[in-house]
Amino acid sequence: MQARKKLFVTWTLLLLAGCTAVTPNTSTVTTVVTDLLANLMPYTDATGTVATYTTAGSIDESTAFFQPLGTNQRTCATCHQAAQAMSLNAATTAALFTSSAGTDPLFDAVDGANCPTAITGDTTSHSLILTKGLIRIPVELPAGTQFTLTMVSDPYGCAVTIDPATNRQIVSTYRRPLPTTSLNYLSNVMWDTRETTVPLTTASTFSANLSTDLTSQLMTAITEHEQGTAAPTAAQTTAILSLQQSLYTAQTADNAAGSLSANNAKGGPTNLAAVNFYPGINDAFGGDPQGKPFTAGIFNLYTAWNNSNDAQQVSIARGENIFNTAPMQITGVRGINDNPALGSPANLRGSCGTCHDTPDLGNHSLPLPMDTGTPRLAASETNAQILAGLAQLTQPVLPVYQITGCVDPATNKAATYITSDPGRALFTGVCADVNRTKLPILRGLAGRAPYFHNGAANDLTQLVNFYNARFQMNLNAAQKLDLINFLNAL
Questions:
Q1: 1 is a domain residue
Q2: How would residue 410 be classed by pLDDT, with cut points 50, 70 and 90?
Q3: Of 249, 203, 219, 317, whose CA–CA distance to 54 is shortest?
Q4: Minimal CA–CA distance to 69: which of 105, 121, 107?
Q5: Number of domain units in the chain
Q6: What integer pLDDT is reported at residue 408 of this predicted model?
Q7: How far apart are CA 250 and CA 265, in angstroms?
Q8: DSSP strands (E only) in 239-346
Q9: Residue 373 has pLDDT above 50, yes or no
């Protein structure tokens, strides 16, 4: 696998992978080298272990997912590591930079640095990937964009460039790599949904449309991230998509609570692979195609631990209940409070599950990108709740943009947005999409810090503090700890 040494396969792991070892009339055991990564291989993270389950039985590391298909020696696995919940952990990324003197393909200047002019091995010009695990994403504004985008600050000197062929602005944003796992539960592809080329909204077309979207995403990744000059073969494409759609990643053990599937709990990646899902399931706004009412009981993994004799297991169960039931005041969220299709509620009383409504997964089961405030700047923000939330985060130093020419639907007056990431609006050119990004699946959180699309929450403590302040949850210290313990157990 690119970005790490080949896994040394021990006798035990060979057995797990279904391989053999030969002992020809001698006490010396000969280890057979294999490219099969054992199913449910546990990897240590901050609070326990994370693992990936594959319906294929094992992960074949000789397939195209692990092969360079471009010109810079990157592979899909460069940014999607099994040991990091099929994403990137910023701390591990920083250690790799040190051990490789910045020469690993992950740090290629095309997008693994603050700007494409970065010098190999220079920590300053790679600060965003080293501190927050951020990849630079250049997006070209479309023809007919409804707004005007100007720079407020350009700390690295490459915030906006002009495409000489189209004369359109190319805007740099910096985002966390999404996990390449549990993809069969998606409602949108990519943070800004730009690779959702056909909708994932209908059960009868979901599988075919998902393959179409993932193929589009793959082609873009090879062209842009791997700097490929030729499309992958049909066989390579099929191999990559088959692998991606066979993977399910989740926390499998907690350092204090033990196995997350013990004592009738339903944590871990094997249980995750069996989750019932269809587009719109349990939609919080009445969009369930089967007509079923929304239930705030989103997670039902650790109910069996409510009466456990183990203090950590009980804490995780309490945290699950807090996620499901603790009230929130949802205000100032673009995509909800300004959405005419939802009645444009100025103040919506809800819970974590109002937005994270997919049972035992935590993403939104229908496409609904939203802006909770994480790309905004405290210096220019006027919403008191957003300011309270931003104060809990460690924001990266990013380019800042001003967007004008839009109208606030709540007041029907001119609106100006100051943001570090205009989100979905960059590729749609639509004012209503400014700052909006999708909600990711929540499983495997402990293995892939930091959090939010821009890495603004260094850890789950900051994440919980953000939501507690932003949506006036009024959790006390013990409740916040329980919620953190639960999120770490996903």
A1: no
A2: confident
A3: 249
A4: 105
A5: 1
A6: 87
A7: 14
A8: 247-254, 258-259, 328-330
A9: yes
